[in-house]
Amino acid sequence: MDHLIFFLLVTTMYFGINEACKKNHVVIHNELGPGIDLNIACRQFSIERTPSRFHTLKYKDPFYIIEFADNNQLPHGEKWYCLLSHGTRPKYWFDIEVYAQAYYPRCGQLRSWIARKDGIWFTRRYHSPPGHVLDWKIQ
Predict the structure, then answer these.
(1) 83 to each of 11, 53, 98, how far by Cα in Å?
(2) Is 38 buried (19+), middle (13-18) or exposed (0-12) by CB count in 10 A?
(3) Which InterPro entries does its entry note (predicted)?
(4) How far apart are CA 135 and CA 47, in angstroms?
């Protein structure tokens, strides 16, 4: 009987926690400069083939958001990649893994990526300053 009660308690806690889980966010900002558009092509790595999401973000537009929940079924978890580019043909670009799920699902995660002329900046927190993480690749 003790095992049954323990099993019911663990099962209830697991499903209760997952139901209250806030969605994760990948946020992309364009701070390249006036008149410079940021081209964004994001795709989800999964067992099923998912099409890319294409978007052009104007300078100082609010931002581009991908909202999703971590996946419990995938052995390696949820992964998102985005190709960021700007310039003619596009001249400057970088293909980034913008989010990778840990071993267990997480709730309410933020990944904020900022495109600037000197490279790509990143932060995981809402109120902390971003840091420079990548330089643009030049084609």
Answers:
(1) 40, 10, 10
(2) buried
(3) Self-incomp_S1 (IPR010264)
(4) 31
The answer to whether 38 and 32 are in contact (CB under 8 A) is yes
Listed in sequence order, the residues at least 6 apart from 123 whose beta carbon sits closer than 8 Å to its beta carbon are 110, 112, 114, 129, 130, 131
Question: How far apart (Å, rounded) are the C-alpha atoms in residues 12 and 52?
Answer: 36
CA distance to 13, 110, 120, per residue, from 133 (Å): 38, 16, 6
Distance CA 68, CA 132 (A): 25
Q: Specify whether the CB–CB gap between 108 and 23 falls below 8 A.
A: yes
